[in-house]
């Protein structure tokens, strides 16, 4: 029995949907295979399935043989044709990254300040924060494959030992999951490791190798190393990170076979810097995280499980040091900067003092600013200044809320597009924008339509080679030329607007016609959604003011839109004709330059005259030295990275006090 179909599952079958698909396949007795481009793999192995790399939009065949073959094919085809399939599964981890992490992942692990000063090492800045603490070197002995040949009568008992070891590892992980001792975010990671430990491919291939006469430890090492290599070779950072999971699970099975316990982190001293070649997510998740001051690893990148756990627990981490990690083995004390990737072993008195100062200042400021978390900054005349957050991913919602964000002033949708191997579908976008709007309702949430150009390539959009991508086919220009991309995004936004607090803004606007054309598209999308019977709401449409052209036609634009949001990052580079990424002209790239401040003031005046809201979402919105000036100009919304919010609120509150 076999049937073919086009895969509609969001992002295809990797991570969560793969685990869910396998679970479904396993509920049938029949042998089930999935075939893509002539390659067939068992539908009961998530490892094989992930490695097959089935993507949304591809054609696959499901083949089953056995008593319940018809039911199996029906159910699995139904799964593949359901865009939401696997999305509600809470067992597997949602391996996602913050924009900072994506930047870190792309950045080569070189160049942070300490390394430049010749004082230390440089790695991937994987979790922010500064720390200085005693070194805790964690280098458990390597598992050695002895490649022992088994006698014919030794094979059956060895297979039994292997099965028992796998069962023991799974049982330990199950116990950890049942015990409630794991943090919520780590639970999914451990659940995924547990699934890998019992995976048909890992267990099946190792069993075959043992049957061929190799001892169980060597067979496990061989299988997991091979699978790790296969995952490492796939062109997808999420799947690459699964290579480390294979090795971690292999190690646990080997230790169980050897009757050994892994070197424990139980006795790590308070505030220690954990130094390791690699730490399995399993080991880290059950370690006393509250005592770990920072993590430094030879392996790992910004999307690895170690990075995810460290970030979710606020532990600074520098990863990917490679073989240089061994230079830290004998260190007594280590200073680390999780923002720059610098790691300094046994810092001298001057460096220690500098780090201490930074740590103390950060702690004191954090405590002092906590008082402003729930403050609603209000000027002497009663005007409320909305201090909002700039976000790029749903995982940042909690941090924004904790910082006291009064809404979202900029949600950059490009990460959503960059993160996936192909263009995100309308349904997926609607779900994400909807979740964001709901999280902050009734506070306003401003989503920016796709702002991407030749400088940031994404799967599914061919960008021409451009001499000057910043002056090229980006933002609203690209979107209007590609309605096949723009329309689904607009429809998704209209669907998310049912929550009543969603606003939408267009990036890189330089002509009125761009707004007019967008409104036409919105009207067309409305007809389409009505035709499909899909519920949708209305949103306010605004524009970013980030080109000099937009400033110069601000009066005309203000008649067509509901709000302005000034993008000072780009506005500064375009007004000053100084590339925002070019360090040679960094001096010119200054918002406080009178030319840029005049452009901001012109925008504020045009908005005020038309009676529309004027806000700012460029980095300058969080600058304590400029906030008073922006308020004087009449801006009523300032949107910034969550970490800057409490300080900005304090500045506004003090400003209001002075005015009274
Ligand atoms: C800006 O240009 O100020 C802005 C907020 O947009 P981005 O930094 O994403 O270009
Ligand atoms: Mg911009």
TrEMBL record:
The enzyme's E.C. designation: 2.7.3.9
Domain of life: Bacteria
Subcellular location: Cytoplasm
Domain HPr: 1-90
Keyword Zinc: no
Gene3D superfamilies assigned: HPr-like, Phosphoenolpyruvate-binding domains, Phosphohistidine domain, PtsI, HPr-binding domain
Record-linked Pfam families: PEP-utilisers_N, PEP-utilizers, PEP-utilizers_C, PTS-HPr
Record-listed phosphoenolpyruvate binding positions: 412, 448, 569-570, 580
Function: General (non sugar-specific) component of the phosphoenolpyruvate-dependent sugar phosphotransferase system (sugar PTS). This major carbohydrate active-transport system catalyzes the phosphorylation of incoming sugar substrates concomitantly with their translocation across the cell membrane. Enzyme I transfers the phosphoryl group from phosphoenolpyruvate (PEP) to the phosphoryl carrier protein (HPr).
PANTHER family: PHOSPHOENOLPYRUVATE-PROTEIN PHOSPHOTRANSFERASE
Protein's name according to its UniProt entry: Phosphoenolpyruvate-protein phosphotransferase
Organism for this UniProt entry: Aquamicrobium defluvii
């Amino acid at each position: 029995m076999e049937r073919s179909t086009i895969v509609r599952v969001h992002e295809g079958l990797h991570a969560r949907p793969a685990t869910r698909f396998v679970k479904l396949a396993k509920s049938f007795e029949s042998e089930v295979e999935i075939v893509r481009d002539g390659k067939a793999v068992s539908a009961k192995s998530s490892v094989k399935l992930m490695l097959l790399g089935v993507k949304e939009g591809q054609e696959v065949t499901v083949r089953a043989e056995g008593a319940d073959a018809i039911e199996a094919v029906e159910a699995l085809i139904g799964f593949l044709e359901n865009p939401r399939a696997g999305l509600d599964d809470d067992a597997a981890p949602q391996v996602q990254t913050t924009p900072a992490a994506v930047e870190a992942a792309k950045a080569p692990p070189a160049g942070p300040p300490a390394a430049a000063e010749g004082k230390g090492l440089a790695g991937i800045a994987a979790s922010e924060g500064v720390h200085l603490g005693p070194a805790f070197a964690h280098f458990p002995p390597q598992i050695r494959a002895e490649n022992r040949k088994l006698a014919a009568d030794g094979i059956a008992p060895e297979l039994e030992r292997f099965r028992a070891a796998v069962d023991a590892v799974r049982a330990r992980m199950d116990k950890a999951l049942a015990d409630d001792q794991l943090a919520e975010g780590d639970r999914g990671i451990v659940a995924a490791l547990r699934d890998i430990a019992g995976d048909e491919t890992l267990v099946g291939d190792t069993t075959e190798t043992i049957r061929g006469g190799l001892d169980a430890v060597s067979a496990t090492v061989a299988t997991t190393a091979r699978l790790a290599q296969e995952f490492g070779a796939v062109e997808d950072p999420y799947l690459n990170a699964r290579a480390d999971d294979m090795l971690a699970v292999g190690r646990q099975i080997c230790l169980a076979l050897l009757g050994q316990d892994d070197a424990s982190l139980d006795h790590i001293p308070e505030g220690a810097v954990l130094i390791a070649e690699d730490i399995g997510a399993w080991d880290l998740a059950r370690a006393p995280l509250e005592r770990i001051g920072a993590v430094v690893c030879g392996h790992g990148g910004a999307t690895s499980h170690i990075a995810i756990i460290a970030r979710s627990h606020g532990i600074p981490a520098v990863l990917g040091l490679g073989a240089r990690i061994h230079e830290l083995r004998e260190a007594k004390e280590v200073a680390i900067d999780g923002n720059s990737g610098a790691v300094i072993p046994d810092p001298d008195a001057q460096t220690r003092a500098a780090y201490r100062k930074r740590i103390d200042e950060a702690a004191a400021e954090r405590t002092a600013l906590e008082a402003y978390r729930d403050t609603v900054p209000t000027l002497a005349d009663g005007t409320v200044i909305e201090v909002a957050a700039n976000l790029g991913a749903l995982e940042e919602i909690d941090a924004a809320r904790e910082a006291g964000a009064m809404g979202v002033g900029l949600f950059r949708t490009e990460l959503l597009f960059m993160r996936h191997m192909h263009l995100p579908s309308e349904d997926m976008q609607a779900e994400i924008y909807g979740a964001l709007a709901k999280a902050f309702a009734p506070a306003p949430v401003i989503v920016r339509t796709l702002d991407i150009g030749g400088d940031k390539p994404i799967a599914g959009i061919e960008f021409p080679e451009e001499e000057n991508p910043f002056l090229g086919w980006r933002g609203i220009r690209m979107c209007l030329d590609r309605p096949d991309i723009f329309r689904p995004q607009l429809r998704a936004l209209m669907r998310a607007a049912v929550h009543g607090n969603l606003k939408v803004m267009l990036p890189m606007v330089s002509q009125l016609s761009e707004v007019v054309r967008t409104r036409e598209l919105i009207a067309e999308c409305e007809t389409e959604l009505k035709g499909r019977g899909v519920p949708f709401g209305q949103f306010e449409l605004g524009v970013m003011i980030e080109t000099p052209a937009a400033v110069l036609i601000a009066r005309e634009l203000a008649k067509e839109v509901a709000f302005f949001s000034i993008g000072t990052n780009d506005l500064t580079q375009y007004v000053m004709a100084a590339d925002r990424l070019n360090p040679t002209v960094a001096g010119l790239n200054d918002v406080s330059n009178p030319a840029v401040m005049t452009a901001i003031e012109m925008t504020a005046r045009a908005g005020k005259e038309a009676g529309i809201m004027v806000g700012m979402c460029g980095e300058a919105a969080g600058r304590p030295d400029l906030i008073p000036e922006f308020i004087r100009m009449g801006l009523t919304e300032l949107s910034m990275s969550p970490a800057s919010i409490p300080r900005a609120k304090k500045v506004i509150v003090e400003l209001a006090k002075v005015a009274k």
